[in-house]
Every structure is written in C-alpha cells, then in structure tokens.
Amino acid sequence: RDQGLGSLALDEFENEVFKRGQTEIFLTTDCFNNEGVNNFYTKKQYLIKSQFVNGSNRKMNLYYKDLKCK
Question: From 29's CA, which of 20, 40, 41, 42 has a CA 20 to 30 Å away?
Fold first, then answer.
C-alpha cells in the first residue's frame, strides 16, 4: 500500500481504455468495510453513480468516471 502501484496500474488501464475509443468506465466495489478501496477510487475522480445490493446480499457501490474529463 501507498507505493503508488495501484495508481500507476489504474492510470495505464484508463489510458488504454481511452485509446481504444471508450470514454467511460464503470466499476463496483463493496460499500462496507472497504474504506481504503473506496477512498482510492474517489481520489482518482470516480463518482458513486448508485448503490445496490447484489445477489450475495452485499451492498455495493457503482462507480463511474468520464474519461473525456481527464
């Protein structure tokens, strides 16, 4: 943690997605007991689009990022 590897990997992923013509990314994370991951995506300018309960009865965050705003 805190070595910047997650940020580097996510930046590379976003760049590759954009190069392939996509302008949006959606992803999900666990809502509870997952503060580190949720803070990470928030710091990387992902917005919570919605929250939902999945088939395993876990509350999830649906994150969204518009790559045109990078």
Answer: 20
